[in-house]
Write a structure and sequence with these properties.
Largest sheet: 6 strands, parallel
Order of helices and strands: EHEHEHEHHEHE
Structural class: alpha/beta
Strand content: 15-25%
Distance between the termini: 29 Å
Strand order of the largest sheet: 3-2-4-5-1-6
Shape: globular
């Protein structure tokens, strides 16, 4: 099955991490590739302690807010190669491509390359893609699509990311 968590609201990665914990709790093996992310966040501390979860980041230390650099593109492409290796290995029951939708939108990775990788997913492997602005072709092939909409956010009051909540 292919699941997509998209939209402009907070909670897409959080939903994917909830699935990760649920899967790991019943003994499933999970691989997480985080695109566009490269800095230490609190959830990494916990996830790295769970033996059947592997998480890798493929982004710079700062989230991309401007035109992506060649380094951003290179890191994202490395991430896609790692995802393809995880798929080919058939070692994982769940593969999460966190912020893959954004990586496609920013042209860090090509839509056609993601679609090719998705076609190789074994039926027994759950694939989750997160990130804003899911491409219509991704939405079309997905079995489940959830859109997280922002109605109100404390960032708009100037409140910064808080440790244990956003970091």
């Amino acid at each position: 099955m292919i699941q997509v968590y998209t939209g402009n609201g907070k909670g897409k990665t959080t939903a994917a991490l909830g699935l990760t914990l649920r899967a790991a709790g019943c003994g499933l093996k999970v691989y997480i590739a985080q695109f566009c992310k490269g800095r230490q966040t609190s959830e990494l501390n916990t996830l790295k302690k769970i033996k059947n979860i592997k998480i890798e980041q493929f982004g710079s230390c700062c989230f991309i807010t401007k035109t992506p650099t060649q380094k951003d593109i290179s890191l994202a492409r490395q991430g896609l190669i790692k995802v393809e290796e995880a798929i080919k290995s058939k070692a994982y029951d769940m593969i999460i491509m966190d912020e893959a939708n954004l990586a496609i939108k920013l042209n860090l990775i090509r839509l056609k390359d993601i679609l090719t990788a998705i076609k190789k997913i074994p039926d027994s492997t759950e694939l989750i893609l997160t990130g804003r602005d899911a491409h219509p072709k991704i939405v079309e092939i997905a079995d489940l699509v959830s859109e997280v909409k922002e109605k109100k956010h404390y960032y708009n009051k100037g409140i910064k990311a808080r440790k244990g909540i956003e970091e």
